[in-house]
Amino acid sequence: MKLNTTINGIKKTYEIQPNELLLDFLRREGYWGVKRGCETGDCGSCTVLVEGKAVASCVMLAAQVEGRSVVTIEGLGTTQHPHPLQQSFVEAGATQCGFCNPGMIIAAAELLTSNPKPSQKEIAEALDGNLCRCTGYVKQIEAVQRAAEKISTSGEKP
Amino acid sequence: MSFSKKIPTESDLSVVNHSVNKVDGIGLACGTAKYVDDMDFRGLLFGKLLFSSHAHARIKNIDTSKAEKLPGVKAVLTYKDVPRIPHTTAGQGYPEPSPYDTFVLDNKVRFVGDRVAAVAAESREIAEEAVRLIHVDYEILPVVFDQLEAMKDGAPIVHDEEDALKIPDAEHNIAAKFDCEFHQTEWFQKADFVIEKEYRTQYAQHCALEPHVCITYFDDQGRLVIRSSTQVPFHVRRIVAQSLDIPVKSIHVIKPRIGGGFGSKQEILLEDICSALTLKTGRPVKIEYTREETFVSSRTRHPSYVKLKTGVKKDGTITDIDMYIVMNTGAYGSHALTVMMCSGSHTLAMYKSKNVKFCGRSVYTNLPVAGAYRGYGATQGFFAFEQQMNLMAEAVGMDPIEFRKKNYIKEGETSPVFKAMGEGREGVEQFITSCGLSEAIEKGKKEIDWDRKFAEYKKFNAGDNPIKKGIGLACLMQGSGIAEVDMASASIKLNEDGSFNLLIGAADLGTGCDTIMAQIAAEVLGVKESDIIVTAADTDITPFDVGAYASSTTYISGHAVKKAAEDAQRQIIKVAAKMLDEKEDELLLKDKKVVSKKTGASVTLVDVANTTLYYHDQFQVIGTASHFSHSSPPPFSAHFVDLEVDTETGVVKILKYVAAVDCGTAINPTLAEGQSEGAVLNGITYALTEEMVFDAQGRMVNPSFTKYKLYSTRDCPEIKTILIPTYEPTGPFGAKSVSEISINGPQPAIANAIYYATGARLYETPFTPEKVWRAIREIKKDNEHSQK
Amino acid sequence: MLKNLKNFYYPNQVKEVTKILADHGGKAAIVAGGTILSRIDSPKTEVAVDITRCGLSFIKEERDGLHIGATTTFQELYKSPIVQQFAHGMVSKASGLVSTRLIRNAGTVGGSIVYSYSYNNMPPAFLALDAKVLIVDKSEERWVDFSEFSKKHGTLIVGETGLLKEILVPSKTKNWRSSYLKFARSYSDWEAQIIVATALGFQDETCENARVVVGAIVQRPVRVVEAENEILGDRPDTKSFERAAEIVCENVSPMVDWRSSKDYRKEVLKVLVKRSLLECNKF
Rounded to whole angstroms, how far apart are CA atoms B175 and B101? Predict the structure, then answer.
């Protein structure tokens, strides 16, 4: 079937299978930053924004994003122009193996859009769907706080 | 013994001991870093394995005809189609100390999840369907799941094949055994108190977020390329060559970015069978485990049974330690000997005792295969040992902290255990050359507010609130690489712009070692870490390294990098001396220049590079070095936990966790903290929620993150890490290891704190609410009984 | 997974939905958040009907109570000030404890009651608050008491051609005091072992309404009326809550699985019911 959707700002029509997971579709299209960690909606490695909301793309069908906007980690920033969250994750030591990073950064991006100055507790609640086995979450929560400060001082948009 | 000591400060060093950003960080954070599966391969086939649904059975007949006829299926392999060569899947130095009890495919299955057949097809769906179409006739065999049962006469024999090698006692399912004893006095004669307790730990898994995945293909010259999520690329090359009977020279292993390993990827898990499918089809093949497959058919931590009998004098001197450990290695003996030995070698050497005895067995059962897992046996050993320490302190009426201080091994001291117990063979005598445990204890105590809480919680717990409060501690050590076994090498070459290519065999699996190595090289060469371009873990390009395990990378590989950089440094200085007309020993490398200490004159690295490459007496500045170590200096750590126990439900809530870690010089303090924090959280859930549960047929009942619970950010307690700077004279810039040690703390520290809170001592992990609740009920019953 | 799924519909109106359902008999499946449908193997499903464009995402308070549209997400419920203030925030609290943020952002309240897994968070809350659900089938609408609805698997009540449109939490419960306790291995555990939802309605010093609902530990959530009767009347006290907790344990036979034993679950259930009632109590 045909799918009309906007991925990272680019509107296109794609050919998909009706039963295809959003995760599989995105990876097939080369959005490798969307990771496969569990396929049961438990680990959050595959997190993307759909209409600005962070969701697990492994428990969503690609067909569900018809007419909607999707943002993957690739749409947030680049190695040349990273998003403040991406920069903060590196500076705070929140990237270890990095496999959870794209999903966690996307989830944090949703948080900062609606809540520019989140408390530690609010960050913990917003990231509770993104498992990480490397960090103990200490530096990742710090990274989100750091990014929030960066955004508020620079006036950049999250 | 005395050693020259110099704890470096930031001002002495310009790159090392600084929390620089990870060299691969921005790619990871931007999602552009390439893991195994983040690449397109034209004509890629999807590999899928058929797993055994029986815990123990012989394959009487296997019919693959339907699967082969399915359109899109390109290969179906069974034991009839692959070489039958006994080998081990453990990624260890050669010859491996593990039994050769594994075949690429076999006519017998030994656990639910064992390999039966492999398929390669044009799509994942076709491969799955083909696997379903394979018909297997099994002769069901009796099963054994408990390691103590498996050792008994008449138990089902897991490895009855005649061609397996190096199994000490297959008839009693003994995959590995080790005994040693030294005593200076009669056993338990000097002891005023003798305490004997049994401890048990559970099946648990690593849960690296990236499941096991491997892609194999032929390059343009027909050589086999293995792109794998591995901690041990060079061992992968050797063992695939061995198991498929192909030459090492025709294999090229590439380790791209890895999504965590924690020991699970110190294993040849998919590379052999994926390669076999490529050999058969000539096409690129990918095998990617699902999370469920990872649970059911990868590797686990060894469940353990520990009996610890110790003697102690009234003055708090430990007189005797007798440790008996039986580990469940599951269906194959990967890491069977070495994990079991580490449960003793890291614990027994930590506390001084005149009499020490160790008796260890690793035993086959019909359950999933245990392998390497962060902590590597020390975790199971410390769970028992650090509770026993509290029991002994209590028996003699000593404060548990003072009791530990009295007994732990100090700088300049040695233990006969170092020599007696290596990894899989005799060890190496060594003295402790750095130990920050005393400071770790003091700083950790202060951070957790031990003295105040110790007194206040006692009062609080006397009240009738069903919530009780507890604090507990554990002290730990680990090793830094394996003495006289682990080896690493590095090459470093100078480019025109004064940057360097650093080639290392070391495998960064998320640990940050590419950054650590770049920092070490940069420090020696007077440049920034960003001037070091790291290429790692590619068997065609980089020199040899045993791989990422045994807490060896910073200590062993880091030392190789330091030596290689020093080699390059000498070459640079030699050229610069001529250019400046100064003596070599008056020159140093600083700020991308070679500077004269005497005159202040300098040449830039750019000038040196251009001279050597283009102008005069041309040669490539390239330093190369290897390193192995005669010792494995232990990092030390003191862990403290503050928690609450709901005595009516048994729920344990961790309020705060403090880990004070002596890792020598932290090459990158932020990354060192991150290693400890990750290990602590993994240890906390290993203590509280994580458990692989099996039904009566040996099937895992909770193979998903929905049912096997890790903590998320919302569950996570406050975790505080304190790095204790010491200087290890044998390590690069004074560094020791940091990656494993902290996983050993949470189980015993939490158990000790639960005991403090409730009076109930837990001898079996994990401390699920029900287990805690039952233990508390037993205490209440006993108290009521004694009151009557 | 959904290997026979051939077509996706994106209707804009409820009547289009019911027409598609009627046209395809049992072969059509409704999709809202997709967090359940994408995980189940349903070979009979040939058509998916995405109902998220039908105006069913709403939260509004009207005279008869709190109206919640079927495609309202858990996160919307959790964060809604209206829901947070209604009946002491029971529905908000229950939604906030659903799995993780990623699932709360996608999953919808309708899905969580139509697919009635024993451990679902929402049914005990709705049962404790005398909720009703609006079902539309072939353009006919009918209100069903949630107590009836929750006795059977939700899909049986809705039927193959029916659609759950909205949920009404009646206005009489607005000022009830409530408590919602989830007993699970971690915050984000989808599969609670025990859920206890209690609500008490007071007129001055008298407890006029009491609801004691137990979920997760039983196949379908149950109200334990005998226990509620212990609490009704003047100034309920700890003793009456303890008796109520005892009665709950006598009346409920816990399901058992590998996570914990029956006698343990009973004991914890008793503790939770008592604690939950104490939390509701005004005195």
Answer: 9
Inter-chain touch C7–A130, beta carbons under 8 Å: no
How far from B134 is each of A68, B64, B140, B361, B588, CA to CA, in Å? 42, 5, 18, 38, 68
CB-based contact B293:B211 (threshold 8 Å): yes
Whether the predicted interface score ipTM is above 0.90? yes
Which residues are within 8 A (CB) of B246 and not within 5 positions of it... i.e. 6 or more apart? B224, B240, B279
The minimal CB distance from C105 to the residues A53, A67, A130 is found for A53
What pLDDT does residue B2 have?
Answer: 39
CB B377 within 8 A of CB B340: yes
Reported as a pLDDT band with limits 50, 70 and 90, residue B3 is very low
C268/B649 touch (CB, cutoff 8 Å), yes or no: yes
Q: Is the pLDDT of residue B4 over 50?
A: no
Kindly tell me if the per-residue pLDDT of A73 is higher than 50: yes
Burial of B237 (0-12, 13-18, 19+ CB in 10 A): buried
Q: Output the six-digit token pair for B710.
A: 């890790």
B7 pLDDT more than 70: no
Do the beta carbons of residue B111 and residue B366 sit within 8 Å? Answer: yes
Nearest C-alpha neighbor of B119 from the set B49, B35, B60: B49
**CA dist., res. B4 & res. B434, Å (int):** 11
Nearest CB neighbour to A129, from listed C7, C50, C102: C102
| The residue to which tokens 């039994």 are assigned | B99
Q: What is the mean pLDDT of each successive set of 10 residues along chain C, which is 283 residues long?
A: 93 95 92 92 93 98 98 98 98 97 97 90 97 92 94 81 95 98 94 97 95 96 97 94 97 95 97 97 79
Q: What is the Cα–Cα distance from B329 to B51, expressed in whole angstroms?
A: 19
Q: Find the Cα–Cα–Cα–Cα dihedral B593, B596, B601, B605, rounded to 10°.
A: -20
Identify whether the C-beta of residue B447 lies closer than 8 Å to the C-beta of residue B388. no
Could you give the angle at the alpha carbon of B416 between the alpha carbons of B413 and B418, nearest 5°?
A: 85
Does position B5 have pLDDT exceeding 60, yes or no?
no
DSSP state letter for B81: G
DSSP character at residue C137: E
Contacts of B209 in chain A (CB under 8 A): 35, 37, 43, 45, 97, 99-100, 131-133
CA closest to C73 among chain A residues: A53
B475, B625, B680, B683, C282 from B401: Cα distances, Å: 9, 43, 20, 21, 47
Residue B9 confidence class, pLDDT cut points 50, 70, 90: low
Relative to beta strand B355-364, strand B318-330 is parallel
Using CA atoms, how far apart are residues B785 and B773, in angstroms rounded to an integer? 18
User: What's the confidence (pLDDT) of residue B446?
Assistant: 98
**Torsion angle of the four alpha carbons C259, C263, C267, C272, in this order, in degrees rounded to the nearest 10:** 40
Q: Answer whether A87 touches B (CB < 8 Å).
A: yes
Q: What is the mean pLDDT of residues B710-728?
A: 97
Tell whether A136 lies on the interface with B, counting CB pairs under 8 A. Answer: yes
Which of C187, C260, C271 is facing B648, going by the closest CB pair? Answer: C271
Predicted confidence at residue C282, as pLDDT, reads 75
Whole-angstrom Cα distance, residue C165 to residue C56?
7
For chain B, what's the residue count?
788
What's the order of all strands across the beta sheet hosting C28-31?
Answer: C7-9, C47-50, C28-31
